[in-house]
Amino acid sequence: MKHETPDIDAASIALRVPERDTGPRDTTQGAAGISVRDVTVTYRNGHTALWDATFDVPRGSITAILGVNGAGKSTLFKALMGFVPVARGEIALMGHPVGDALKRNLVAYVPQAEEVDWDFPILVEDVVMMGRYGHMGFFRRARAADRAAVDDALDRVGMTEFRHRQIGELSGGQRKRVFLARALAQEGRVILLDEPFTGVDVKTEERIIALLRELRDEGRVMLVSTHNLGTVPEFCDRTVLIKGTVLNAGPTETTFTRPKLEEAFGGVLRQVTLGLGATE
């Protein structure tokens, strides 16, 4: 995925430490999981990478974000994480403005592989423990609850036996599962996944999809940026098509159609399986 500006350090996004939880987890039960209203993002160099974007993501759902490189997907993720200011419009996460949602530790991020320094000497369990920093005190001393959360997260992604490995020793699929475990340990209600299937085998992909379905059933909100179009109808409840702005957004069965995909991707798509109920 292309990053639209050199002003943001990709590594800082990948290794961002959640802020300490300073308030109730959620006080607006009726609000959408993610609400984006007329959002425009303009970088310091004057380039507008996203304009008048509007869409909603319900709680307890998985939504695909689709578009060509440079369409604004990375910019959208950065705006959702507070890395770039919004020139116009509003974003709400679980009913809270972005800044408040981050302080409440509501947002977790699973980065692309290229955003991580895999040569950095850190153990798998320490990467996952980073997800607990927002729950710790000033000195970041792990408590029993933090260690239990890490244990549970590693177990859910099937990485317990690798907890004492250096992350650089892992395969592509294992690395992705480690950062999924970090998101689980963080206990974020909104999970942003940037190309979660890149560099993973079919078995790992199926395992990730099964886990995302479990998280959806637990009421989590997941936004998945992916170029793997063939899997979208299989597990995504909703789809958002981006090309500088939001072209279409809605249930996958009505949004993931060939004409709408061709509008977003600028040409005829080949070898793309449309979901059941989708129309040509």
UniProtKB/TrEMBL annotation:
InterPro entries: AAA+_ATPase (IPR003593), ABC_transporter-like_ATP-bd (IPR003439), ABC_transporter-like_CS (IPR017871), Metal_Ion_Import_ABC (IPR050153), P-loop_NTPase (IPR027417). Residues 34-269 form the ABC transporter domain. It comes from the Bacteria. GO terms for biological process: zinc ion transport. Pfam families: ABC_tran. GO terms for molecular function: ATP binding; ATP hydrolysis activity. Keywords: ATP-binding, Ion transport, Nucleotide-binding, Transport, Zinc, Zinc transport. Residues 1-30 are annotated as: Disordered. Belongs to the ABC transporter superfamily. This is Manganese/iron transport system ATP-binding protein.
